[in-house]
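Lecture 7 notes: from sequence to structure.
We start with the chain below.
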Amino acid sequence: MKDLIIETKDLYYNFGTKNVLSGVSLEVPKNSIYGFIGPNGAGKTTTIRVLLSLLKVPAHKVRIFGKDISRKRIDILSRVGALIEEPSVYKHLSGYDNLRVQCRYLGIDSKRIDEVLAITELLDDKNRKVKEYSLGMRQRLSIASVLLNDPELLILDEPTNGLDPAGIHDMRKLMLKLCKEHGKTIFVSSHLLSELEKVVTHIGIIDNHKIRFQGSIQQLKRLTSDYLVIKTSDNSDALKRIVDLGFAVSVLEDKSLRVTPNSDENANKINKHLIKSGIDVYHLAHHSGDLENIFMDIVGK
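Predicted structure tokens for the same chain:
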């Protein structure tokens, strides 16, 4: 039996007459980094607000830590840390003083502050004014604040949004540390698979308010395949002739042809056929399939 931290069953949600979630069923295993991926407007933030009981749904639709959120809301949320939208910090205060305010609000001993600053690699900057922090540092300070009560589950909504490459790298590194070294389960949303594929263990892809794929990152990778990229003197004619040979062909953004299945034998066969047909082959190369292409295929872009 799966040890699930988050489980939703056939979850629907409407804003008035507008449907925003359609039968969403999630399974988030314990100690996983679960990437919740989808285009803007797909339903990611609405799902997160439901998980945090900010939006109400019928009983038995959402279970966290094996408990119904509609019946055990306070108990569940005391074990959850959430970061939604932009970092919420006082820029005129130091990093340390921001967390001290949070400790007073939560009734937590201030000795926990240095511990979370060390985890988020902000200990050396704790006395600097937050207005001097980069956006990435402010984002990590916000995560430090939700770590103060040592939650078992972290729910992060677009934590890399707006960050530069260095900030994105630091956020990935932090998520890995929190999962592997501190035993946290992390549910993280994004609209870009490329941002998260290096760290997530599981993926849920939502599009048009429905789950299109759910499983481990290994299961998603099995959907990828190598392919040939071909450019010719007449791509339109080449496409028809390659299809007649029995290959699957699609047109890439630069008008070159993407052909599967890929092999040296198939490349040779196609090349000879096109040349024999009077079509010049300008470029023919092997390419490895990637998760970004699979994501785009799944959401139908």
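Points to note: The mean pLDDT is 92. The longest helix spans residues 165-180.
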